Amino acid sequence: xxxxxxxPEPTETVIFVSSHDAGTSTVINSQLGQVHFVxxxxxxxxxxxxxGSVVVDGVEYVEASAVTGNLLRSQVxxxxxxxxxxPHGAKLIFVIAVDKSTGKLQASHVDTVGxxxxxxxxxxxxxxxxxxxxxxxxxxxxxxxxxxxTIKTETCSPIPHVIMCPLVPDLEEATDQLSKTAFxxxxxxxxxxxxxxxxxxxxxxxxxxxDPATSSLPRIVMAIGNPxxxxxxxxxxxxxxxxxxxxxxxxxxxxxxxxxxxxINGTTWIDTPGLSDxxxxxxxxxxxxxxxxxxxxxxRLIFVVTTESGRVKPDDLATLxxxxxxxxxxxxxxxxxxxKISERLLQKMLTEAEFYDKLICSLNSGPYSTNxxxxxxxxxxxxxxxxxxxxxxxxxxxxxxxxxxPCIAIRPTDVEAxxxxxxxxxxxxxxxLVEMMITAHSKQLEQIVIMHxxxxxxxxxxxxxLQADQARRDEMTNGMLxxxxxxxxxxxxxxxxxxxxxxxIMAKANRGxxxxxxxxxxxxxxxxxxxxxxxxxxxxxxxxxERKRxxxxxxHQKEMHDTKAAHxxxxxxxxxxxxxxxxxxxxxxxxxxxM
Length: 595
Ligand SMILES: Nc1nc2c(ncn2[C@@H]2O[C@H](COP(=O)(O)OP(=O)(O)OP(=O)(O)O)[C@@H](O)[C@H]2O)c(=O)[nH]1
Ligand SMILES: [Mg+2]
Description:
By secondary structure, this protein is an alpha/beta fold. The chain is built from 13 helices and 16 strands.
């Protein structure tokens, strides 16, 4: 997973928050058109390793997913609210999946929304909601109503933008998938969801907070807290070896005259004694003052506190107050590890967000407040143990948290002696202040709940009106459909009749045509017959004429023949006569010679 620091500067940030298995990675990947976010490995379940992000086209997509359990929810809530305090703000979108078996919103997903929203206290945050994995047949109106009824919307104004995304069976099976079509509406939701700008909680001047990467000053993590809160165990956990004595009998850490400082992975860790024990208070105060004055450095001040009745103990708050009072700088950043949170308190926070609110409210009731808070559940192995080393895997989240706490450059001259005389006074004052703040906060919450309920009632009324309007429209549409259906049926009947009539006309027309055709044929035949008869007659006449002509020809020929025969006979006779004459002429004559 890429981190925001390695990426181009975004102009817009959209944070997607969801519980385990809500399908958020798929939703974001589908917007990106590529698989960027993948499911975290199983061994990281239950840990918060920071928000995943990617910047594409100037938009930073941030994912806080697989959030299970209230502890993780609280850590995510703080990280999300911090991200929304950046100058360009952020858009917040929750992804809530639908339970396949009940067709309702997954209760744990709704819890995540509640816890994250509670981190904004009374800021008015507008957000979007993706109702995801909706099985076919589940009413979207009912789901919308459920979103309105169940998620803690007192901080939202006016109402969240909600979109519905269906369950895509193909994606169900795949591990890291995307779909361009199933989540098309998410792009609109991202556009429509307004950007929220949260005021930075700590108005820290730029010259105070220093980026450790750009400073050559030594890095120092100072663990401060009352006896037994777990400072030494924290340092041993960071070193993964026993560098400082820890345990119920280790005793106040003040038996040592020298400063307890240890080099761990390039950072100096300082173990300090607590101030709550009046017997050792002056000496402990001296040691903490010495630690702060020891050298100029980049300090991360980490207060390790514990709880009592679901609140941070007043003596822890007093310690925190008088130590910070001793640093002559404004807006000193610091982190708080609320340590050894019991399983029971965790359960209460899990079921009622109010417990979480009370805890944070008690911590920030005094003159100083922070949003760098880490909730650390009680470690069963470490309870009352001596020199217990918390496993590295369990240390990762807390060490990551410490890395996120801003550094402050402190010179020895910036520090004055810690005033132990103030301790009891501060403790008593802070005890009252915590009570007062919690009561005020509860009242504020009650008012918000009342406002929320009235807003919800209004939303419900609006929804009811919308539904009634929809029902009216449906009725009208059904009426129109019915009338159209009747009209269509009538039209169809009319068409059938016209068709029938047309067929009749056609049939008639066909008959008439046939008759006319027959008559025409008859006339033609008759005409043809007459023509043929006339022709026959004409031919007969021609034949007769020809016959006559032939007869005449024959007669003529015969006549010619006869004439020729007579002629030939005459010719013969004449020739014979000529021959006789010639014979007579040519006969020799003795007696008579004619001269
Ligand atoms: N259950 C539980 N016990 C813890 C935890 N961290 C520390 N402890 C126990 O709390 C006791 C006191 O722990 P230390 O680390 O010595 O506390 P410290 O703040 O250094 O105390 P001092 O040095 O006396 O000021 C030890 O028995 C630890 O094992 C935790 O997270 N859970
Ligand atoms: Mg100690």
